UniProtKB/TrEMBL annotation:
Domain of life: Bacteria
Coiled-coil ranges from the UniProt annotation: none
Lineage, uppermost ranks: Bacteria, Pseudomonadati, Bacteroidota, Sphingobacteriia, Sphingobacteriales
Gene3D superfamilies in UniProt: 2.60.40.790
Signal sequence, renumbered to the chain: none
Name of this chain's protein: Heat shock protein Hsp20
Family note: Belongs to the small heat shock protein (HSP20) family.
Start and end residues of each SHSP domain: 45-155
Keywords: Stress response
Record SUPFAM superfamilies: HSP20-like chaperones
Pfam families: HSP20
Length: 155
């Protein structure tokens, strides 16, 4: 029988900074940083959770949505509006080139981004363009829905 205070080699490996939960968390972070598939949910499909970065700029008469998608093809984008949801999606075709990479940081993938539109936007006149890897969507403002700021007098 072992006494309670005796340490075996296995017990020593589990003690200190590399014990249990810390080791698990460290390995999860390491996998997240260095394993692209794990970073995107570990589903085996890179398209599962990738989101393209977006900037939204407000101008006087319209909103400008800029979706950054370098290396993508214009014809593979879909822009749809259903009720008050603007959907921007990209469907990456199945990869035909089965090259063996020595090192790979870019893995082509599909994505879908949804944006909730409010009454300030005219959904009938939306325009889109794709230049230099940026999909730009122009969302005109509804002048009737824009209410100027006002000051309320305190009695």
């Amino acid at each position: 029988m072992f006494k309670r205070d005796q340490n075996t080699a296995t017990d020593q490996d589990r003690s200190g900074p590399w014990s249990g939960r810390f080791r698990e968390k460290f390995e999860r972070i390491q996998k997240h940083l260095f394993d692209a598939d794990a970073a995107l949910g570990g589903s085996g499909s890179m398209s599962a959770r990738y989101d393209a970065p977006v900037n939204i700029v407000e101008h006087l008469d319209y909103f400008e949505l800029q979706l950054f998608a370098a290396g993508r093809k214009k014809e593979l984008f879909t822009i749809a509006i259903e009720n008050t949801i603007l959907s921007l999606s990209y469907e990456e075709p199945a990869e035909h080139n089965q090259s063996t990479f020595a090192y790979r940081e870019h893995i082509p993938s599909s994505f879908k981004r949804n944006f909730l539109l409010d009454e300030q936007m005219l959904t009938d006149n939306i325009q889109a363009s794709f230049e230099e890897g940026v999909l730009t969507v122009i969302l005109p403002k509804n002048p009737e829905a824009i209410k100027p700021a006002r000051v309320v007098k305190i009695d």
